[in-house]
Amino acid sequence: MSGPSTDVDSPAPTARPGYGQHDPIYPEPFDDSLDHADIPIETRLELYRKQQEIRQLEQRLYDLFVQNLVKGTSHLALGMEASGAAFGVALNSDDYSFATYRGHGHTIARGVPPEPIIAEMLGRSTGLLGGKGGSMHLTSVEHGMMGSYAIIGAHLCIANGAAWSAKLRDSGQVAVAFFGDGATNIGAFHEAVNYAAVYELPTIFVCENNLYMEYTSIGQVTPVANPAADRASAYGIPSTTVDGNDADAVYLLAREAIEHARSGGGPSIIETKTYRHGGHSRADPGTYRPDDELEAWMAHDPIPMYHQRLLRIGVGERELTEIETSVAAAIDAATEAAKSAPPPDADALWTNVWADGGWQWRN
Asked: How many domains does the chain have?
């Protein structure tokens, strides 16, 4: 077989920037036209409350970490509150949520009180998982929070299982799987999306694209601009991108995608463009991000923006302050209760264990 023709010179491939070197990516301006979106004021106040709950919980977890009360590391989502809040409001109480190790906000957004979350982070017996799961494995089946998963992309396939169950039972439930931009280059993402498309499952895949897969810009290792949404057409499912720091914008898309899935329309992908205020984890100072990019995104903070929107549409400052202070009081009370709770008993070591490490359980 002859080699390729050399009659026409091919352009030299463009080299990708080196590690930590990339052009800054800036946010789009907030869309003030959404001031007039078809969202009831009660819903908007709940969106604001949930954003406050997520922000204040995460800030408190940071404070506890620097006091050496949280063992191990933690992955915070400060600056990424809007998408969790939006889906927390849009979902029914019996719908399913699946999150990554950055799942504290998604957990409280589904209605889990702050005390068992904080206690779990502190390794206390009153924690959500008895103090044995820690930061990366928050789960509350009672609230539809079906777990946070430390293995990148693994939960996307599990979410399909929940969605398939709902479809077989004709329950009308939907499953929402949150994941980061880095998961889009994991095989499980493509397997899960393909499977959901083939079987028309009520799964909603929500990529919280914070532009960095741990320490590397997603753009350096991905050939498309939108790593989740731009790949959806290959699987024949609808997708869209959205300002992930605008709770109203995400809520409107969430409401549409949930209805699409609930009515038998099958899966969809929503890619939210957002940004974490800190590094990948508490062990990461995040110094690889361009200063002007970080400054622009810090100014694109979802909570001050939403605060101003509510003021523009007629909500009083006093009402917003009452929401903020009531959330702060709840977080303070939860913190003190968690700090005073005892650690798990030694006997708890042998509970919730599926196997003893031997081979006999396989038979």
From this structure: 1
